[in-house]
């Protein structure tokens, strides 16, 4: 049984992690996968109830149109949270700041710097999310790397204060998530049930993923106060699913089914349909496995094609941002299975893609990631794009 907020062993030194982990999660593997290969369709175990009628599926082929560039000149953007009534909050991984972007004019206003952020490697200020009661409590949640761990905090947002002073002092909601130079996870989202879902990484220590007494290499499900959520699969535990390497994207479809993107090592990146209490195989399985202990992915990609980060659901498909792959993937769905081969868009046009978020209807917000130390930034990077999808 896991102990809430328990301490974890110190992580290995950054250099040792890089040697033993085999790759950096932001760029997938370095030793496997043909960059010209096609994605390999899988036949996943489905969490759709037995006997449920097949759902109407989207067309096999879709489309993407870049409507406009919303904002430019962002430094190492990572998380994005749309505000009710307009405006986008964007976190900077390396600066440790949150800015508000006017989604009409692109004007940027700094809310403030999140204290305690220690940016190094893949760590820093990562995912952000708004409280499900934001209209009344004005709370912004953030996942970040500190000197000793990864943690989730919440801060009061007061836009009546001067720029740079609009964030209140952070209240720590959940701490002691293992940190490393790599594999820090970082995506947080409130689900349809108003619980907080947290994607974590195994920080380069692969054994943590199968250890249900560790919160590394997991998807966690918490109350807004940071306690294990009611109905979790393991008693008194925040763990919702395990056997993950480095969860980077979380999204729900219209049936409230959870999906997650995950970095592989040298062979396969994954898109998974998440079932409470299931084991997703890492480090014993990477991609599809014949071992029935493990829940197989909805689909898998070579690391050169994907290295996936954020995901979003729109128009009957999941849309997955690729870092090393430098493209946006469309995965049409029938329930929790892919109904057709994935389709790639924007390949190489905007460089590395970090975050994709629903913007309502057939629109998405798409965030590039070329100023993160691994990209090749051009004039204007990094950007937020508004795209139209089908």
UniProtKB/TrEMBL annotation:
Segments of this protein annotated with the region Disordered: 27-63
PROSITE patterns: PROKAR_LIPOPROTEIN (PS51257)
Gene3D superfamilies: TolB, C-terminal domain
Comp. bias intervals (Low complexity): 36-49
A Pfam match: GSDH
SUPFAM superfamilies the UniProt entry points to: Soluble quinoprotein glucose dehydrogenase
Signal peptide: 1-25
Superkingdom: Bacteria
Residue ranges annotated for the Glucose/Sorbosone dehydrogenase domain, each copy included: 74-374
Keywords: Signal
Name used for this protein in its record: PQQ-dependent sugar dehydrogenase
Species, as recorded: Streptomyces tuirus
């Amino acid at each position: 049984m896991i102990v809430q907020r328990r301490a974890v062993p110190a992580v290995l030194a950054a250099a040792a992690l890089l040697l033993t982990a085999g790759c950096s999660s932001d760029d997938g593997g370095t030793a496997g996968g043909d960059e010209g290969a096609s994605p390999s369709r899988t036949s996943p175990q489905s969490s759709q109830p037995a006997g449920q009628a097949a759902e109407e599926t989207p067309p096999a082929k879709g489309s993407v149109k870049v409507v406009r560039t919303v904002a430019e000149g962002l430094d190492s953007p990572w998380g994005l949270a749309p505000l009710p009534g307009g405006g986008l909050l964007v976190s900077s991984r390396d600066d440790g700041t949150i800015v508000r972007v006017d989604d009409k004019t692109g004007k940027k206003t700094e809310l403030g710097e999140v204290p305690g952020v220690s940016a190094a490697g893949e760590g820093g200020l990562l995912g952000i999310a708004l409280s499900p009661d934001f209209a009344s409590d004005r709370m912004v949640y953030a996942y970040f790397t500190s000197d000793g761990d990864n943690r989730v905090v919440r801060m009061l947002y007061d836009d009546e204060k001067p720029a740079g002073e609009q964030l209140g002092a952070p209240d720590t909601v959940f701490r002691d998530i293992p940190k490393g130079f790599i594999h820090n996870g970082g995506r947080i989202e409130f689900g349809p049930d108003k619980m907080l879902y947290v994607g974590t990484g195994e920080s380069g220590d692969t054994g943590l993923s199968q250890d249900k007494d560790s919160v590394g290499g997991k998807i966690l499900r918490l109350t807004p106060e940071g306690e294990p959520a009611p109905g979790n699969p393991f008693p008194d535990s925040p763990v919702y699913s395990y056997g993950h390497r480095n969860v980077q994207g979380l999204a729900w479809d219209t049936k409230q089914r959870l999906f997650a993107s995950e970095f592989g090592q040298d062979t396969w990146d994954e898109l998974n349909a998440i079932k409470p209490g299931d084991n997703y195989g890492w480090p014993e399985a990477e991609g599809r496995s014949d071992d029935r202990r493990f829940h197989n992915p909805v689909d898998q990609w070579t690391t050169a094609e994907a290295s996936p980060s954020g995901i979003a659901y729109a128009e009957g498909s999941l849309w997955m941002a690729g870092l090393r792959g430098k493209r946006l993937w469309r995965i049409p769905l029938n329930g929790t299975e892919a109904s057709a081969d994935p389709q790639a868009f924007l390949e190489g046009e905007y460089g590395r893609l970090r975050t994709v978020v629903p913007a309502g209807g057939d629109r998405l917000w798409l965030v590039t990631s070329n100023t993160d130390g691994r990209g090749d930034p051009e004039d204007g990077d990094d950007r937020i794009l508004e795209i139209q999808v089908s």
